[in-house]
Amino acid sequence: MAERGEETTPLTSRKEKRRPPCSSTMMLLIVIIAVLVVLAIVIPTVIVVTMKNKSASKNSTDPDQDDDLINSVCAENIMTHLKALQGIGDENSNSDTPSRSVDDQYNASASYVQEQLEAAGYKTWIQTFVVPVYRVLGPATFRMMAEQEDEGSEDFTEGYDFEVMRYSGNGTAYSEQLFMLKEEENNKDGELPPTGCSAVDFEEMNEPSIVILKYNTNCSYYEKARQAELAGATAIIFFNDDEEYKTQGPSRSRVRGERLNETVGIPVISLSYRLGQQFSGKEMRKARIMIETSTSVTMSYTYNLFAETRYGRGDRLIVVGSHLDSVQDGVGINDNGSGSSTNLEIALQMARLKLKPVNKVRFAWWGAEELGLLGSKHYTSSLSDKERANHSLNLNFDMLGSPNYIRAVYNGSGVRWYCRPNSHGLYTTKS
What we know:
This protein is an alpha/beta fold. The protein is built from nine helices and 17 strands.
């Protein structure tokens, strides 16, 4: 990989004739193209306005160049990149499922983007980091055994009744009784009910047991699982008794901490609302349960990929980012090939048009986003105070092929996951 450095002169010539306009017939193929046509107009416009308005300067982009960028970023070219990413994912040899995830075809995807950028005259650089990669190695079992062996048992259906939570440990657990946290009505006056977030919540667990815990926001899944494991739990079952989630299936949320080694070594599953109601009852405390999971967690190297414009103020840096990795279960053409391909096409067209933005634009393709935003977190955590202060704006392009897209403005840390429209038709998050 090339090291970070100054951008070289683009390969295109100032006398180069403009490429033919994109074919409008491409919009008729599939829904994603129609969406990208809209976004191909909106996103370059946002970038142009941002480049011009963030700072008053004699180097402002002229109106003709603005129009050139807006008109040059189009769905047909973006679809070319998407088809390339599809082909790369299809060549995945690590499993039977096409994928561009970490340890699958992510590196090949990044190489494709890098080759396109360098052919356009950009100097690229990478930022490597280590990530925990979780894999499911085989089907899981969740079984309730009868009191008498000759009475048979009941096997529950993975994906419907229960799910193995991501970063669950590997193994088999048997238990003659479920350990449940003491009930709220048995607490002393003024004492808060136990949540599983503290070691004292498990003091009454006198022998290794399968523990059943309720979803709540008092602490993370990992913190609850960690406390239970330290107390001697052999497996953990999470359930949700909130009627708001009555129609939702079991969760596949991550059970992992912020640090690389913060994982649990015992099976962790979650139940559907229906099954959670059944197993959280007092009569189930003596249920004979068997849980078996087949998973692995390995440490792997991955990286972020960057390129930036040669011109522009480095103290008013605009980051245009998109995650390039997919989930393990698919190639991720919408999530997030659509955002990464649009990001790439904007960079290519800016180089072809030889634009000189007022503020420097840094294009970023994040790795390991699907593992918990790890690439972008690594980038931000590695910045010095001065480098962080030089960042003026971040534009995040994710799932641009969605027909229900929004143009949203995040309001910083502590944001909640819902949006509301304002008078300008934009969406802002509310903390």
